[in-house]
Amino acid sequence: LGKHTAAIYPIVLPDRLEILLSMPDGIRRYTVAVTANELNTEINHFRARLEKRTTHQYRRHAQKIYSWLIEPLESDLQAQNIDTLVFIPDGVLRTIPVTALYDGKNFLVSRYAVAVTPGLSLTDPQPLPRENVKLLVAGLTESVQGFPPLPDVEGEVATLEELYDGAVLENKGFTQSSIEQELGDTPFSIVHVASHGKFQSDVRDTFLLTYDSKLNMDTLEGFMASTTYRDQPVELLTLSACQTAVGDDKAALGLGGVAVKAGARSAVATLWYINDKASSLLVTEFYANLKNPDVSKARALQQAQLTLLADPRFKHPSYWSPFLLIGNWL
After folding, report:
1. Cβ pair 167, 137 in contact under 8 A
2. Which neighbouring-strand residues pair with 115?
3. How many CA atoms within 13 Å lie on the side-chain side of 179?
């Protein structure tokens, strides 16, 4: 896991919550007296109220869940100087961003970088090689197929083009055939898609919007399959401006499974659709932070989220918390 990293396995049982904490010096177990029904109710209220940007009603629920999920572990985390948490969430816990849990004064993201994974056995924690990073950016700014335009994607694409070498597919240039050709021809380290998309537990209802069609996950997996056996596989698949189905406890982490199956070591995706100005700001901060070889993907995302938290326009967690890093956190 790494010197300052801990893995948290919450196990939701009918009459209690069991938590396994894996740290460099071994595994600890905690039992929390909360029923599955109580936990599910609180999490559903938290998720629904977190998306309302005009209120702070989410805080009461964020604090309650914090008291069950984090508070019992706090003294052990601090004693080991843990700064990165890897969650393997169970059931309804997959539907919430744990970065927005609240201790009464601060959000969890203020103290820890956070990643989630369907399971450590699916994760290959290797650092992102920072030399010769090649980035494929595919984005839509125009309204196509009945979906609204994403005007801030233009600035996002331009900034990423300045930060990294690679290729850009924008609007009419972003088609199924063009992305297939680029992935087949060039060993990209990062694939970044800024487009509408929806992720649901039924993979047949999951898609990324291209200029000319809807790209389903089976097709994307096929496109990326050829990259798996290269010396440099796709390290990161980022999906900006997409959303997962509300209340679907398999959808967001399902994306992690798609990324892993498709050969990517990790994925960044959002739990719900957010303002594309906030999304573009966070994504560009994330990629700028990744330029530093001493910063992990989890820390790069944490720093980007803290940048939004410090911005009066975007300090509400509905703007910064839905971004999840799934898979390899290094």
Report:
1. yes
2. 86
3. 31
Distance CA 210, CA 178 (A): 10
Q: What is the pLDDT of residues 252-285, one digit of tens each?
A: 565 666 666 667 788 898 888 788 789 889 999 9
Task: Return d(Cα 126, Cα 328) in angstroms, integer.
Answer: 7
CB 92 within 8 A of CB 249: yes
* Model confidence at 64: pLDDT above 90: yes
Closest by Cα among 218, 142, 207, 137 to 178? 137
| Integer-rounded Cα radius of gyration of the chain | 19
Q: Could you give the CA distance from residue 280 to residue 258 in angstroms, rounded to a whole number?
A: 23
d(CA 103, CA 97): 15
pTM (2 d.p.): 0.93
- Locate the DSSP E strands across the chain: 5-13, 16-23, 26-32, 84-87, 113-116, 134-139, 165-170, 190-194, 197-199, 207-209, 214-216, 236-240, 243-244, 266-270, 323-327
- What's the number of CA atoms in the CB half-sphere (13 Å) around residue 268? 29
User: What tokens does 238 get?
Assistant: 């980022």
For residue 155, what are the CA distances in angstroms to 221, 243, 281, 311? 28, 20, 9, 18
**Helices and strands (H, E) in the chain, number of each type:** 10, 15
* Residue among 211, 207, 236 at smallest CA distance from 224: 236
Res 257: pLDDT = 60
Q: Quick: pLDDT tens for 208-242.
A: 899 999 988 788 878 877 665 556 678 898 888 67
Q: d(Cα 261, Cα 110) in Å, to the nearest integer? A: 32
Question: Which residues, 6 or more positions from 229, have their beta carbon under 8 angstroms from its beta carbon?
Answer: none
Residue 265 has a pLDDT of 84
DSSP string, 86-151: EE---GGGGGS-GGG-B-SS-BGGGT-EEEE-S-GGG----PPP-TT-EEEEEE--S--TTPPP-T
Mean pLDDT across the chain: 89
25/104 Cα distance (integer angstroms): 30
